[in-house]
Amino acid sequence: MSEKKKAVVLIGSPRKKGNSIRLSGYFIEQLRTKDGDVEWESEVYRLYAWLISQDRLEQLIQAMQKADLIVLASPLYYDSLPAVATYALEVIRDHWKQRKVEKSQQFMTIINSGFPEASQSEVAVDICRLFAGEVGLEWLGGLALGAGDMPRGSVQASLELAAESVSRGKPIPEEAIDLIARPFAPAFMYLVMGNSGWWFQAREKGAHRKIRDRPYEK
Amino acid sequence: MKIVILDGFRNDDDGRDNLPAMLQDDLTSRNENRNIQHFKLREMKISPCLGCFFCWIEHPGLCRFDDPGAEIARAVVQSDLLVLLSPVTFGGYSSELKKALDRLLPTISPYFRIVHGEVHHRKRYDEYPRFAVIGVLNESYPEAEELFRRLVGRNAINLYEKNPGCAVVTLSDGDEKIRDDIRTALDTVEVGS
Questions:
Q1: Which is the most buried residue in A20, A55, B51, B53, by most CB within 10 A?
Q2: For the whole model, what pTM was predicted?
């Protein structure tokens, strides 16, 4: 008979269909296909929607209390987690100060940034690691990637490898961390593509001639 | 000289009253004729950044939210010195501080540049303020302090600061040590009067 386990996914992005949801969704999908002795159920909580009221917050905390695995999937904002994701971690820590630990719980993170270098997200991953230590969660590791909106095989392969290991209760392997960190493109190529991308996006909005505006000039 | 302090203490954080006072004391002791704007973020209703890029590709330089977050962005750009003050939170900044920091995105360009082989964003303006950070711990926590300093180093690149001031003070060390640490951090970024 299969063991039932629960994964709670916290989405740190304000977007309803962004990279954080897509990447964590693929990871959970892979988790479900591994280890036939474990049946995974999952719940996804978009923090921007779940921290808006005390009632919802309490529900979120309750769900996390019952989770075997907690996954935080988040973009990188100014080299660390966005304010809302940071607030979620603070609230969890405050609620769990006096909690009775009912079972062993594991925590991992997937951090995506708009730069090609995954190394720029290392601080954010380590913030998550320190959080895990402070609230008594077993740290499984963090997957950091750059340019997450650029689909590539190494990202999927990494998430599959990570899911394989996590499904057996083991940490994310170094191989998965290295795979997902592979830059999408060399820095200069990314710069050229990215800059033209911004210009075209601004042109679609009729703002390409104002892209360098300085409304706060002294 | 215009100075902006972004105060990221939460309502129940230790040090929330005396640390800002010590910081302001130090700044005014260098020159009492200074324009210091102390934004007590826990008392300000600031919408979190939506990552919508309105400020880059729809109305460049301005956030879609016309709230205190926008007021702070303007103040930062027009200042000579930006000081972040925050309890060290899992080795990073508090959510109060982050809600203001994240909203500085309109003040930079979407266009990329390469800095020491890494991709970062170009400046929107010619000049940016000097940058210093004071982190606050209740007790010694070396791992969190080390991570906090790494964060400040990363932020400095994205805030166009080559040599940021940084102090991580420990409340249990006592006021005299704390004042010394703040002074040393601000010595790094002092920009005349």
A1: A20
A2: 0.97
